[in-house]
Amino acid sequence: MNILIAEDQPVTALYLRRTLEKMGHSPRAAPDGEAAWRMIGGGEFPLLISDWMMPNLDGLDLCRRIRSSRIGRYVYIILLTSLDRREDRLKGLRAGADDFLTKPPDPDELAVRLEIAGRILAVHDRLELQNARLAELAATDELTGAKNRRRFREDLELLFAQARRQDSPLSLILLDIDRFKDYNDSFGHPAGDELLRTFGALLRESVRGHDVVARYGGEEFVVLLPATGAVEALEVAERLREAVAGRDWRHRPVTVSLGVATSDAETQDESALVELADRALYSSKQAGRNRTTHAARLGLPASLVR
User: Fold this and answer.
1) Domains of the chain: total
2) What pTM was estimated for this model as a whole?
3) Catalytic residue among 21, 109, 194, 219
4) Residue 7 known to be catalytic
């Protein structure tokens, strides 16, 4: 286990480091609380053994700072102290300490305390994995595996703001499966669901890892392309259209209509970008489906007022 030692007394720090190394751990030492705080922020150390009394930032304040921070994983804190009064230990617990060791620490007791810490950290890691999984499920469309509309809106807002800050383009592709209602009516809803699942997987496999694929509603999907200009976005959209049209679908050929929009300095907000893509999609469908249209080709202003 990676263990950080916060100890201003070199002899004690050396003793702890060597003892921990003999136990098979990977310790590093910080000379005071401030140095330990800078090191703990990287998330490399799940366990901290900190002296109570230190210059600059003592053990209690280091505990409080860690507990009030947004460090990704839980840090198990053992306070090293010669104080053994009940009120002192309560003060340490209130500051955020998990356990205590008396100076100088007995190696056998240290080993037991670390076993306890390992079990508790394992529980925290499992809970974090479960929470991450639940968060992913809450953001995912159950049928297609694409992001759901709520998550799309969150990502769109974030990526649009990022594009503004970095003065870079953001492109958006709206895709609508052509004559999907007829497909459902002809082959049944289970076949329609199978088509949507396959279509969602095809989209995810056909774009870059940092692009966002979401189910916008029904048979309509959306792809967000960060840092992607109009020409490249059209190429991506055409590649998607050709991939769908060229696939050997189970019941009958399937095509898709696409509308593309790209933000620039005049784009009012993220909703305007969606509406531009939606109008471009409508144009593709009106022109006979199975085609791609960029909003710029329609003469629509980027500062479109809804």
Assistant:
1) 2
2) 0.63
3) 219
4) no
